[in-house]
Amino acid sequence: MNTRVAATEYRMAQWSQALQERRANGETIDKFCQRMGVSRHSYFYWQRKLRKAACEQLVKLQTDPTALAVQGFTEVKVAKPVALPISTSMGQVSVETGSYKVTADSGYPADKLAALLRELARSC
């Protein structure tokens, strides 16, 4: 991978996390910029860049649903183990958490099921 591309992706990930935390904490843009030691220009530059990247990913996903699928395996560390009731029957898997129940057949793409479960975990 090109080092410039990798550096940009790293900065985008850092800014994405910082902007999400700012919004979650209800911090004003001015206070955020002062705390982080960045200009308002930098804040809006990275916000614009992240929004553009998100839109491009959305278009890519709409034209090719497998475009965002991650190949291979990755280690997942669980901070707090949670027991989820999982049942299987005739090529289907069901996962229940809180007031949500997800049932998928064996042909359902694993990456989409994983993304759905991540969203459910955030809301619970």
Topology readout:
Layout: H1 3-25, H2 29-36, H3 40-63, E1 86-89, E2 92-97, E3 100-105, H4 110-123
Antiparallel strand pairs: 1-2, 2-3
Helix pairs in contact: 1-3
Nearest-integer average pLDDT: 76
Q: Largest sheet, order of strands side by side? A: 1-2-3
Q: What letter string, H or E per element, gives the SSE order? A: HHHEEEH
Which percent range describes the beta-strand content?
5-15%
Please, how many helices?
A: 4
Question: Gap between N and C termini, in Å?
Answer: 37 Å
Structural class: alpha+beta
Number of strands: 3
Low-confidence stretches: none
Shape: extended
User: What composes the largest sheet?
Assistant: 3 strands, antiparallel
Radius of gyration using CA atoms only: 19 Å
* Tally of discrete structural domains: 2
As a percent range, the share of helical residues equals: 55-70%
List the defining traits of the structure above.
124 residues, extended, 3 strands, 13% strand, 3-stranded antiparallel β-sheet, 4 helices, alpha+beta, 2 domains
Q: Please, could you describe this protein's structure?
A:
With 124 residues, the protein is of the alpha+beta class. The protein folds into 2 domains: 3-63, no CATH class; 70-124, no CATH class. The chain is 56% helix and 13% strand. Helix 1 packs across helix 3 (40-63). The two termini are 37 Å apart. The mean pLDDT is 76.
